[in-house]
């Protein structure tokens, strides 16, 4: 005799598992697509500019495209490294020496005053593209590894309320989106298009 109740439970359990995996896949795909759009916006903006133009702050309170790309790559790098417990790419891939900026390694770039932001300059635009690409690839690979259960893990007690893994990921991606839009605005102010 067939035990229909047991069969139905198995079907329901498997269906719920597939739904969870489907939702996780959708969230990962949405997050990845959003981040890739920011990357495209940055690259398109940078390719329209010379190195000098990219390094130019159009106003003391408006960051250069160089600073915006560097900061975005660095934020993704440091935020995701902290989440997965690894050494930041800034050190591991030696971006710190490649950029060779006159700033301390522990600079809080999100607090940069105009004089500090003006120190973020490059002589080769490809350096920005490469660091941003490595940081984005690092983030995309991390997104593939997270579980739904881990999204609510507390990852930072220095804020009220404490920051969850989900909030930190959303914050990092939101930062990338915001700064890619700022880069377009900065470019328009510098080169008029």
UniProtKB/TrEMBL annotation:
A Pfam family the protein falls into: DinB_2
DinB-like domain segment(s): 35-181
InterPro entries per the UniProt record, alphabetical: DinB-like, DinB/YfiT-like
SUPFAM superfamilies according to UniProt: DinB/YfiT-like putative metalloenzymes
Record-given protein name: DinB-like domain-containing protein
Organism: Enterococcus canintestini
Taxonomic path: Bacteria, Bacillati, Bacillota, Bacilli, Lactobacillales
């Amino acid at each position: 005799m067939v035990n229909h109740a047991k069969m139905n439970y198995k079907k329901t359990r498997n269906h719920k598992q597939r739904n969870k995996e489907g939702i996780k896949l959708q969230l990962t795909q949405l997050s990845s697509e959003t981040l890739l759009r920011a990357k495209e916006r940055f690259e398109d903006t940078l390719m329209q500019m010379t190195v000098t133009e990219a390094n130019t702050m159009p106003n003391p309170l408006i960051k250069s495209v160089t600073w915006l790309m560097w900061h975005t790559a660095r934020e993704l790098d440091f935020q995701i490294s902290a989440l997965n417990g690894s050494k930041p790419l800034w050190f591991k891939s030696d971006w710190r020496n490649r950029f060779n900026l006159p700033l301390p390694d522990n600079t809080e770039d999100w607090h940069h005053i105009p004089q500090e932001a003006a120190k973020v300059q490059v002589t080769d635009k490809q350096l920005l593209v490469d660091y941003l690409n490595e940081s984005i690839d690092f983030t995309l690979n991390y997104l593939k590894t997270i579980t739904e259960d881990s999204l609510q893990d507390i990852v930072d007690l220095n804020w009220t309320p404490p920051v969850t893994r989900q909030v930190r990921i959303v914050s990092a991606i939101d930062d990338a989106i915001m700064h890619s839009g700022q880069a377009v605005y900065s470019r328009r102010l510098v080169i008029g298009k």
